[in-house]
Fold each of these.
Amino acid sequence: MVINNPKVETEALNFYYGATQALFDVSIRIPEKKVTALIGPSGCGKSTFLRMFNRLNDIITGTHHKGRVLVDGEEIYNNHVNLVELRKKVGMVFQKSNPFPKSVFENVAYGPKIHGIKESSKLMEIVERSLKAAALWDEVKDRLSSNALGLSGGQQQRLCIARALAVEPEILLMDEPASALDPKSTSRIEDLIGELRKNYTIVIVTHNMQQAARVSDYTAFFYEGNMIEFDTTEKMFTNPGNQQTEDYITGRFG
Amino acid sequence: MENQIKDRIILWLIRLFFYFIVAIVGYIIFDIVYNGLSTLSWEFITGFPRRSGAEGGIFPAIVGTAYLVFGAIIVALPLGMASAIYLSEYARTGRFTSLVRLAITTLAGVPSIVFGLFGLGLFVIFFGFGASILSGSLTLSFMILPTIIVSSEESLRAVPMSLREGSLALGASKWQTIYKNVLPNALPGMLTGAILGIGRAAGETAPILLTVAAFYLPRLPGSIFDQVMALPYHLYVLATQHPEAEKVLPMQYGTALVLLLLVIIFNLGAIILRNHFRKKIQW
Amino acid sequence: MKNWKEKIIRLLLVASASISILIVLSIFLFLGKEALPFAFDPGLSALWGTRWIPVSFKEELFGLLPLLTGSILVTVLATAIMIPFGVLGAVYIAEIARGPERDILKPFIEILTAIPSVVIGFFGLVVLSPIIKNIFHLNTGLTALSGAVLLALMAIPTVISISEDAIRSVPKSYKEASLALGAKRLQTIFSVIVPAALPGIIAAIMLGIGRVIGETMVVLMVTGNAAKITFNPMSSVRTMTATIAAEMGEVAFGSHHYRALFWVGIILLLITFGLNVIAQKVLKRYRTVE
């Protein structure tokens, strides 16, 4: 499989928590405006890998890495890289929904405000557009000023997606976005991912194989810090090239 | 069977020890309130002392304590909050951080009279502020700094990491994240610490003994370079230095009650504030 | 642009955090500065004497021993009272008291830490010392014992609260293992839980002792302030803290007496500093073991 002009790319990436190595020589080329799923048993390094793309591992003390991470062909672990610009471009949705203890409106407007947008009409427009894109607008349009912590779990997670969309990212990282949700909310999130793939490059971590099969175009299988295999989702799930991948996908371990 | 009875007796003995302490605390509060209540009046609180405190009120001492506490808190609060933010959000484990922590626990253990000596040496003499509100406030502010730092850091650490990550992932800078997303959620806890600090500063005698307090000064201060009376020192003077200490007992009880009420109100306020916000914010 | 702002803020925060270090250093510095000349004239050996008579027409004497023994006597007595009450109180709160009883009584006892020491001293003066005077048929109730009782009382909430933490952090499995072996509740408490929590309890007692040694107003008001070497609990004594508080107000700046009082302060500072550092070390090791 050959991928030209990847949106995100790593070359021989190694990552360490202190003396413990969490990623081993991972090289991947993630295509633009597709959904790429990262799968593997818990502790295999897939979430750590995801957090490399917006440099969120930087905030954990005692970590370091070797190798290269490129977004749009540019090394992002570079002293003169503007973290603000990078994280604006690379949005993220977390495993456990983490709305700020503010109103629905303030949650979505948080990013744009940080990046200097002040006029309320402009903010309102962004909030509405983002909430619509996250398929949440109809449910919350009458209570934009109530506290986000009052929303249901599924709504909170879609609010977090809307919040990420509001800063107009090009890439959306999703770290097991539906793992804490009920089946109905999960399927709404999956539908939403289907919509968002048209405009965004999405990288999603999941330990739910069916979910990976349903939503993604490409799949990478991680095991003990190594990327074992990376291919189109179709190929991975029908005819994997590696025995370990097959064992995992067919549920023999993990 | 015999063993069981022995166990029972020991259990009751432990209970007795514990309730003995409870009873003493109760008795101290009861004694001060019961005896002080008859002195407490509008005139006592708003009036000026006469005949070196044997008659009249304690207004200048209340005002003096208010000035000192206010001065202490406007210095200690920003410093303490900033230190706590550094320790919770920026500090990495290393020599500087452990030195800061050692300094804070050391400060917390310095006897209050030693703070008084220090204030005397540094502010009164070296900086030449003399015995004044300024010297006293600064001395008190150093004394309550550890209280404020420790409780502020605790409340900052109670803010979940996910809020910081969520904000950083949106492209907010570190300070934007702290200022807009961490501080607002930690503020109630920080205020609780500040209130506890105020309560402590209001009741301290030893540090102000050497840096500010006036024996008898029945007027209000004109500037921060003036001496003032203060409630705890006034009680000490009335109880031990007054020529007719026995006769002014009601005045002593009245002053003790005002002081007791003051610190209890501050502490209750802090507890209520803490519980209120603990209930309101559920992660 | 933004990076600049971030760097300045970081710098300000580091500076604020450094101030605690600066304050501790300058406490040592300024106490030392005022005390040092005494080392040359009349010399430190003057402090090593049995009589403290700082104001005299004949010969001024700055022997610290009576003050030191005064502090030691009061502290030892207070510690002896504080340990049983503090430890049993902690056992009661952590292992015996239930729901509402604990929720109400624990904060109630903690009010003690909030009551200003001058109020406690006042209570001692007008209520406790007459009682002690009558019980023991003394000429005055202003004794080392009176001070020790009040100081113990003030330190007990600290001892209870830190010991309680230590008792609570004993792994549940210890307790369950002991109970499963058929041990009774009290046996379990005193032969398993308290020994396991002992380092924490010791640290709690040390912090309590630190409070007792450093406390000023109570001893100033109720121990009678007689500077003599004695180990009789019914005698009046004068502690180091009370000496500073009582005499600094009337002393001439720069006199021998003035400088000797700063030496008293330095000794106090070193003692409490040492106690604190050791207690923190014990607590820290204890917490990392968990």
Amino acid sequence: MSTTAIKQVPDSGRLGLARQARVIRRYAPYYKRHWVKLFLVFLITPLVGAVFNALLPVLSILLIDEVLPRGDYLWVVLFVTATAFGAVLRDVNFLLESFIRFNLKMEVLRDLGRDFYTHMLKMSMAFHTEHPVGERIFRTFIDTHDAARMLGVSLPTAAAMVLQGLAVTGITLFIDWRPAVAIALFFPPYVALTLYLTRLWRRFDRAMREGRAGVTAHLQETYANVMVVKAATREDDEAKRYRTRLRPFLRSFYGWFVCEGFQEGLVHPAGLAVIFSALMGFMLGYLHIQGQITLGQWVALQGLIAGGLIPLATVILHYQTLCREMVAAERVLEVLQRESQTPDPAAGHRPERLQGSIAFDRVSFAYGDEPPLLKDLSFTIKAGEHVAFVGNSGCGKSTLLHLLLRFYDPQSGAIRIDGIDLREYDRYRYRRRLGVVLQRPRLFPGTVRENLVHGAAHHTPEMVERALALADCTDFVHQLPQGLDTVMDEGGNLSGGQKQRLTLARALARDFDILLLDEPLASVDVDSELRIYEAVRRASGARPWSTLPTPLTPFATWIAYSSLMPAASRRAEATTT
Amino acid sequence: MSSAQVLEKDVKDAKSAPPLTVGRTFQVLVRFFPLLRPLWPQLILLFLVLPLAGSVTSVVPALCNRMIIDVAFPRKSVKMLAAFGGMAVLMMLMERLLSVIVRNATSAHLRTRVIEGLGTRFYRNMLGLDLRYHQSTPVGEKIFRSDTDIIDTAELLGLAFPMTVQYLCQFLVTVLTICLIDWRPMAIAAACSPVFLLVAQQFFNYYRKVDARQRVEGEKLTAQVEQSLANVAVIYAHGARSHSRFQYYRALVRYSLANMLYWFLQQVSIVVVWPSGLPATMAGYLIGLCGYWVITGSMTLGQWQAIGLLIIQAIVPLGILLNYYQVIRLRMVPAERVLSLLDSEKRIGERPGTRPIEAGFRGDIEFKDVCFAYTPEKPVLRGVSFSIRAGRRVAFVGPSGIGKSTILNLLLRFYEPDDGQILVDGEDIRSYRLADYRRQFGIVLQSPVIFERTLRENILYGAHQETPPDLGPVIRGTGLTGVVAALPHGLDTPLCGDGSLSLGQKQCVTVARCMAGEPRLVLLDEPTSLGDPASKQAIVEGIDMAASGKTTVFISHDLLTLRNLDEIIVLNEGVVWERGTHAELLARGGLYHGLWTMQTQRRVDTPTPGEPAP
């Protein structure tokens, strides 16, 4: 099992402001568009919140010390109303702030999700074959989500907390400077503990994500191939295997929650900060017994110490959350920063139509580190020629097709379409000019119609019907309960041959210039195969097209037996060298 | 059922989920109890020891504070100050240690055990469900159920329930302590609380709906990503990137909207029902009122201080309780979903009185009037009868979609016939132990399935012998010698994704898998259709070796490969149309004759060359 091979930033769990700044800078483009919201959540709402949070205690102190002794009820009512009003405003500000934050998160998630997904689809096929589907799903779905939350929610929250913490602590110290001593004593060891815990926690967080991706990958593989699992009666072994794959995930899961326990128990403001405030309070009780401070002053000092410590502890708490979520942000960057092995040209060639001539010029290719599959392969196919490739299994016939589709780029040599290097083309524009049937019939869950027009920009009902007729699908499609709008499930309602005919219809429904067929009729029964062949041959007269069917399917056989037989066999020899 | 329909159903499930009642909660607990029983030390700790210890440690500091003000200060006793102060700080530390750190660790441990035990059982059950379920359920949804639902259920059992008990206990002990100091504040609080509870209830009803919706959107998004990433080659080949991106983006936007509302409501709940919100304001007034009693002299200053602290302390668990009430209510949905799948009837299970298969198993097959339909409106088999004697090699032929693969599915007991009987060795196949029965088969499917494991594990996938068979002959027999030699670590090379082997080579591996399993019956579903001539030859030779002397059922379109078989059964219109040897069927001049003529004619005649287009 080749697991998570995406190159990972070596992670000791160590934090660094520089590293965080780097990560955030990489995400800056996602912020730019939303500068109004940023302005609001990073500056305005935190300031308003800080003012209210600091003002409300001041109002109550004034109420107790100044207004109550006067005994003027009008003033009391005025003060109480002002306090209540202030509290309501504070809450409204908080809700507004939350709303903007989540809105920001949502916008960032959309942009980031789209970019991430686009980037995934831009990677060469090597990327996709290297990583199990489950892992790619996890990164696409959960990691981007967490990264967006960090950008939209955690970062502004942390910023707001810094502002509010400083304001509240500042006002507390303005009223009485003495709690500053307690703060100075408390914070250095507290921060050290927090940072240590955060480091540990981050390590578990990353391990947990990787573990869960592994578990998902296992689920994906066995659920997708459940028929084979059942036929081999491997259910119990798969369950055992699943259990062993759960273990590393569960170990980090446990570690994660133990860290959370220490976090909630000690680092959280309700933990050490409160206990330390109480301890200082009791120690100050000694001053009261000594007669140095009054009981009222003692009560006030207790409150003030807590008021100075707790907001600062909250700041640290939020900083910590931020650090943890940065794991996801970094995982997203790992993919986004990975260059595609088949890069796009700056301004790709965007032909309206292709002539359809294909030339391989000393092309060499190997998958990854494996021995080379194609060595200095050269041949040309003129526009309109029908060519078959034959050869032993594993000699690289399907690979030729993958290279023509630009799933991969050759390591050396060049492939030219209409005399222009394939790498010069705008990849998507080029691919849209192809009709393709890949080796295994693959259809998407959805209706028959959705599958037929998958990816085709322009299509008319006539084109769809014509393609159905060409691929001999008309009869069975119209027998389906809802015809073209029948929903196909993951395997049940169509036979293998019918699915394959549909993939052929899908290729023919497009307005293509080059037709690439990889065993297009392998599991189609004899009579419909014959009809399809006749139909496609008739259709071929209408416009120029090159076919490149690979091995000797009956369909390909015919082409090989026909006028191109010598050429085809010569090329086959070239291929197998 | 399409994925969309399944998801719609889920929304309805979540919406129509009955409100949380004690009976329902109890039922779920009882159902999960067998799973939890071995974990009794953790359960005692979580449900009994920690709540009690946590409650006591949480009220002591406030009482100490009262003693300092009422007793230590008037007497100017530094000793008493130190004693009470020390006691308070110690208790606060203990409270954090027990109610948070130890509780979290115990709960996490319990949850890991639940995820491991329940998750494995759930997964095993999923694999045991019949193919009808698997083929109508998108893989993404199954992953979501096995992954997120299980973790949520573990959260319900290992976190939400213990937390509820703990905070309920803490709340009751705190209220009791306040009443012991002075009953009046509690009487006022009790009078006010119904209004608050009503507001909270209404709020959370809405919250729950929003949560259900954002989960459903999440499932849809996962399913969308799953299907497109699994079929990424098709998307690439069609240049359909923008189309796929649009679909993804649409799902993402819908999810993010639902998710935003959900998180926003959570914030609203912080202001409204959480301790910092409405309850805290109410408590503030209550404490202020108590201040009046201090001035009038019916309460001491120490009592006032203690009550002030304790009221805040009572409100914190109240808020948490309300929250956990909702967590339980929400997590009940996945928990019950897990339970319903665990006792799903859809599983083709063992019947009582099934028997193991003994050594003398021969492999005679008989179908008696078998009828079968995947969906009621479209019958596939309408009374198929035939028998195949052990050791014979028989092919099924007929137009595509006629039910040839269905016969294999029924024979493997992936589905049960709607009517009629399938006998193997004269016994109904349902009377055999399922695992024993399926192990008698070796299968090769049209499209080879290779797992992301080593080549050896892939070949031995179907082998259940005590000692693994010698792979040497298997490798040679399937022409894989060259492939093994070319792989960097030979048989122990991990195969991954689509890259390392060609399709023909992969098929050879599945033939090797079939051979290594030493089956009595061999089922072949178009095994050679995707191979090229050379690998086809290897596959055919491998199959000949694997199937020699065994009952073999063959499905193929290529009639040429079927000529030498013992019998050919032609299916049409849901029944056995014709049967006989190749020669007999040709002589009869029926459907088979027509198919044969069409295929051979085409091969013999040289078709007109396709003229290059103008």
